[in-house]
């Protein structure tokens, strides 16, 4: 069991917030296949200040989802606290503060991973948010802004401040901001944080692309849990497989072609509830890479799925390659 404030998860892994991916559609399927907690994609704090735009995002957690966390991104403590309160009032079960995003457009706004340069401001944001909501609050970090000792010291300063403030969990991706997603995630640094703050809930992230790796990290890192990010894109089955292996059971077979096709179309239809037809087909293409990896004709399937421009063309491709639809 993993405790995040008043949330009790029955397994110590869950789906990460993924910008541009972990919308309601992806969350519903992750929950169906065993994720005990899912998140929105990262959302700008200022969205909460504009009610009309806020209402149009289809971000409200649905009855067919389990616990859902809202991840927010910004640099002003007061605005972040207002956003956190708004999302909590919408029914989200947890607030996660993004101090990790390495996207250049985010860094130019002095938010996300940039805040690893400003420990005092990061802790002030956490303080303001914790005072504005009663649900659990977590923070997402990378291991520094760059590979300098000064950057590592500031990262540890944020960890120390967050623990002092009673943060419900620190989620750490094992790369610094400048590294983006290059090279291998450094799990030893994350484990060092757990050894330094054994009383805190420390959760690791990075390169968890299959169930075997997830379970191995849980067994060897000494952490309280892990969060599955890119490994869940087009692959909700990773949660079912990880549950089995973590519980000492054989990894389930499959998924077979019929199940793949059915889930693919279910994912698309959930997106189509939110977007107009042509836009929904274009938006869905980015998931095709993940889903097609499970097919024995991966490259051919991927080309056909990405080439579809309408709902009918998408269904025709799924019928051809998966026999459903």
UniProtKB/TrEMBL annotation:
Signal peptide: none annotated. The active site is at 101 (proton donor). Keywords: Flavoprotein, FMN, NADP, Nucleotide-binding, Oxidoreductase, RNA-binding, tRNA processing, tRNA-binding. Residues 15-305 form the DUS-like FMN-binding domain. Its cofactor is FMN. FMN binds at residues 71, 140, 173, 229-230. SUPFAM superfamilies: FMN-linked oxidoreductases (SSF51395). It catalyses: a 5,6-dihydrouridine in tRNA + NADP(+) = a uridine in tRNA + NADPH + H(+); a 5,6-dihydrouridine in tRNA + NAD(+) = a uridine in tRNA + NADH + H(+). Its EC number is 1.3.1.-. One of its GO terms (molecular function) is tRNA binding. It comes from the Bacteria. Belongs to the dus family. Catalyzes the synthesis of 5,6-dihydrouridine (D), a modified base found in the D-loop of most tRNAs, via the reduction of the C5-C6 double bond in target uridines. This is tRNA-dihydrouridine synthase.
